[in-house]
């Protein structure tokens, strides 16, 4: 049975590679749904190569929070083999929805919120866009706080302790707030220059951060007397009954770490020279570099346990243990580059487009980036990374469940309902095929609600470790909470596909307005 909503025809000429652009003079003019940043990238502007996508992922993967993910698993009781296996498997899993949603970028040149219009409707697309923007703003705050904190710790060592011995504001030294604000301003200054500046920055930042991580590994290995003590730290969980209750929620947390990008990856792939560039670049860049970085992270954390008697899962705190001024300055620069690299690409680009989609007449890409910066401060990100339990299980688990639901709807609509065929001009017109009911597709809203409840309804916390009841928000759903991302994606994908193919909530089609 075919979809109730006709898939439409690609608007404009298609290149031999199957890429589509708007014909000359066919720019949609409805200011409610169009501005310069939301329009499709012309074919001439789609020139990111395999290296650009691989470098993008290398730059994003090699950052302090992803280091804290891997070393946090060691802190939770895994040995290095268990931690690396968990992260490698998670990144192979999340690569598939990444490639599926990324396909629309090189083909149509559209960002994530415009792609979401095909499934949620021209107005309804603001629902997933704002969910994604809210998550990105929180992530921006987390990364900025970690980066500013890293600069503060290392400068304190450089200045011999006087940097921190100052009056406190809001419970923190005012110099820490200064580092935070300066780091925040530097990030927004780079992204304000646009996507081409980001591409150039990622190209050289990626190899620099790899070198920094290898230097830190060499230093810890030397202190531990070689790599042997790093690899000998045993698992506190074993491979039996104690391991699996930690493994599955940790796996979902690792998937959730990049589940954000599995939604808005079209924001980047829209600049791709073709499908080969984005597929090869992402396949080479994401699982390989995340696994390599995970290996470096757990080796260094295991080494810190051998040297200091307890795992030091924060690389900044570990680097601060050296008294070598040159080493401290090198670590400081590495922290700056690594955090800038991921935060700008992963957490500013998406909400900038998402907020522009909310009010195209008032918000462009640069204004959206500034709003992201403000919201990222207001969420008080320092609380989210206080412990590995809160960071991995509560924050990432909750986020992953909601984002998996949106990913399921996008994949179902683009691949199963429309077979990758979109009416490009119709994505910008209220009289086009994606208007549904007053701009909303009830099938997508219902699938999002059902998938979201199943994914996060059972969220629970151990006493004193998180914000949720011990028995779960909805106790009957508690067994599903450890698999939130997978549950949300599968439930939303199946329900949305069934509704659209049966003609239920999605009956209004291109012929209704």
TrEMBL record:
Gene3D superfamilies: Hydantoin permease. It is a multi-pass membrane protein. The chain crosses the membrane at residues 54-76, 83-105, 174-192, 204-222, 242-263, 284-308, 328-353, 365-384, 390-412, 443-463, 483-499. Keywords: Membrane, Transmembrane, Transmembrane helix. The keyword Membrane applies. This is Cytosine or purine or uracil or thiamine or allantoin permease family protein. One of its GO terms (molecular function) is nucleobase transmembrane transporter activity. One of its GO terms (cellular component) is plasma membrane. Residues 1-31 are annotated as: Disordered. Belongs to the purine-cytosine permease (2.A.39) family. It is found in: Membrane. It comes from Streptomyces venezuelae (strain ATCC 10712 / CBS 650.69 / DSM 40230 / JCM 4526 / NBRC 13096 / PD 04745).
């Amino acid at each position: 049975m075919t979809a109730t909503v006709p898939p439409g025809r690609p608007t404009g000429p298609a290149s031999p590679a199957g890429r589509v652009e708007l014909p000359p003079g066919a720019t949609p003019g409805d200011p409610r749904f169009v501005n310069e940043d939301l329009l499709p990238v012309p074919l001439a502007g789609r020139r990111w190569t395999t290296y650009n996508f691989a470098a993008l992922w290398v730059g994003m993967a090699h950052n302090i929070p992803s280091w804290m993910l891997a070393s946090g698993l060691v802190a939770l009781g895994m040995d290095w083999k268990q931690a690396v296996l968990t992260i490698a498997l998670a990144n192979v899993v999340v690569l598939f929805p990444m490639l599926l949603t990324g396909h629309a970028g090189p083909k149509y040149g559209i960002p994530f919120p415009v792609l979401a219009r095909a499934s949620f409707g021209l107005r309804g697309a603001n629902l997933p866009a704002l969910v994604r923007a809210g998550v990105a703003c929180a992530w921006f705050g987390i990364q900025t706080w970690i980066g500013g904190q890293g600069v503060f710790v290392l400068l304190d060592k450089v200045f011999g302790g006087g940097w921190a011995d100052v009056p406190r504001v809001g419970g923190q030294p005012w110099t820490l707030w200064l580092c935070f604000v300066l780091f925040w301003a530097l990030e927004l200054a780079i992204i304000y220059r646009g996507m081409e500046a980001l591409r150039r920055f990622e190209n050289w930042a990626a190899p620099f951060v790899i070198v920094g991580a290898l230097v830190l590994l060499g230093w810890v290995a030397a202190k531990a007397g070689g790599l042997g003590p790093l690899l000998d730290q045993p698992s506190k969980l074993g491979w039996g009954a104690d391991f699996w209750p930690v493994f599955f929620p940790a796996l979902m947390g690792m998937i959730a770490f990049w589940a954000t990008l599995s939604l808005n990856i079209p924001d980047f792939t829209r600049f791709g020279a073709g499908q080969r560039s984005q597929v090869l670049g992402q396949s080479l860049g994401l699982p390989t570099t995340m696994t390599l970085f995970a290996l470096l992270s757990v080796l260094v954390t295991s080494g810190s346990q051998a040297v200091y008697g307890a795992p030091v899962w924060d690389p900044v705190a570990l680097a601060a243990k050296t008294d070598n001024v040159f080493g401290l300055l090198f670590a400081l620069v590495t922290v700056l580059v690594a955090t800038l690299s991921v935060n700008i690409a992963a957490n500013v680009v998406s909400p900038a487009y998402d907020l522009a989609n909310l009010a195209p007449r008032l918000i462009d890409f640069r204004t959206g980036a500034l709003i992201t910066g403000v919201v990222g401060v207001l969420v008080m990100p320092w609380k989210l990374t206080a412990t590995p339990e809160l960071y991995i299980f509560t924050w990432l688990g909750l986020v992953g469940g909601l984002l998996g639901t949106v990913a399921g709807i996008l994949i179902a609509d683009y691949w199963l309902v429309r077979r990758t065929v979109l009416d490009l001009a119709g994505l910008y017109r209220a009289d086009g095929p994606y208007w549904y009911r007053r701009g909303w597709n009830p099938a997508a809203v219902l699938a999002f609600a059902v998938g979201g409840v199943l994914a996060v309804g059972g969220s629970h916390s151990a006493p004193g470790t998180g914000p949720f009841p011990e028995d779960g928000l909805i106790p009957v759903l508690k067994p599903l909470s450890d698999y939130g991302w997978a549950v949300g994606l599968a439930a939303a994908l199946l329900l949305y596909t069934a509704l659209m193919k049966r003609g239920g909530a999605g009956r209004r089609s291109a012929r209704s307005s």
